[in-house]
Backbone:
């Protein structure tokens, strides 16, 4: 049975500007061996039951039903105590719940079970970055980035870029974002973060290019519209500024961004 997991790039945390979602890649830890004859019927049945529990847990996790998800993971661990995915997903749930020590404990245990799992190291690196341990986080993320065949490579570049921004290293952040863009030009988070980074260093024309790619995908959040407004203001394009401002007013009249626009607080 295949479930989401091996890439393990999951996360509902929006602590910064990014939301990472569960990758649809099958978990080797839950697939079982290719030759079931090597295992007893009981072992095969246990693997299947644990996999079902993990599928349920991930579904509940994606819906934000953390308590139910944790209960399902508890059942999966009872069936298969060394199931790496169970500890990995449980770490991410605790991470989103703000239970930092519990998340750390589960990440560490999962890493002991699977010390070279790039997806797990990817998530742990992001966890460290979110918890003011950016230098450690980048060690894990850079290890992932040395593996060009990693299926969520663009997201790893994005995470490393955000981690660098938290360290006030905008030059490194821009480099990570640009490398990620080369891997996946359609990644809206990379385009948005590139636009923001370029805007901050005064390259407004390039910033317009990248935020325009996000707008073309019709991902018109208040954050995106506000950044686009600020870029067009710097470029002196009043027509585009007025059009974007009208969209922000229509779509997000109660947003912080619209409040800033009304006050003319473009530099806050």
Residues:
């Amino acid at each position: 049975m295949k479930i989401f997991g091996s890439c393990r790039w999951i996360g509902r945390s929006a602590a910064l500007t990014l939301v990472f979602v569960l990758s649809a890649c099958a978990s080797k830890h839950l697939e079982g061996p290719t030759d079931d004859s090597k295992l007893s019927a009981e072992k095969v049945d246990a693997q299947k039951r644990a996999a079902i529990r993990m599928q349920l847990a991930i579904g509940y996790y994606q819906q934000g039903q953390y308590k139910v998800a944790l209960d399902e993971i508890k059942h999966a661990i009872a069936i298969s105590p060394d199931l790496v995915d169970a500890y990995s997903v449980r770490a991410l749930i605790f991470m989103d719940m703000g239970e930092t020590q519990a998340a750390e404990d589960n990440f560490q245990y999962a890493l002991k079970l699977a010390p070279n799992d790039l997806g797990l190291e990817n998530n742990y690196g992001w966890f460290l970055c979110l918890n003011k341990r950016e230098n450690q986080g980048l060690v894990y993320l850079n290890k992932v980035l040395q593996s060009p065949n990693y299926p969520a490579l663009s997201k790893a570049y994005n995470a490393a870029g955000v981690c660098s921004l938290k360290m006030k290293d905008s030059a490194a952040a821009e480099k990570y974002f640009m490398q990620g863009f080369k891997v996946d030009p359609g990644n809206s988070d990379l385009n948005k973060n590139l636009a923001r980074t370029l805007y901050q260093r005064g390259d407004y024309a390039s910033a317009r290019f990248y935020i325009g790619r996000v707008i073309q995908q019709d991902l018109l959040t208040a954050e995106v519209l506000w950044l686009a407004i600020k870029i067009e203001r710097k470029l002196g394009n009043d027509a585009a500024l007025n059009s974007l401002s009208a969209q922000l007013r229509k779509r997000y009249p109660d947003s912080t961004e619209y409040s800033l626009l009304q006050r003319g607080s473009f530099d806050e």
Notes: The radius of gyration is 21 Å.
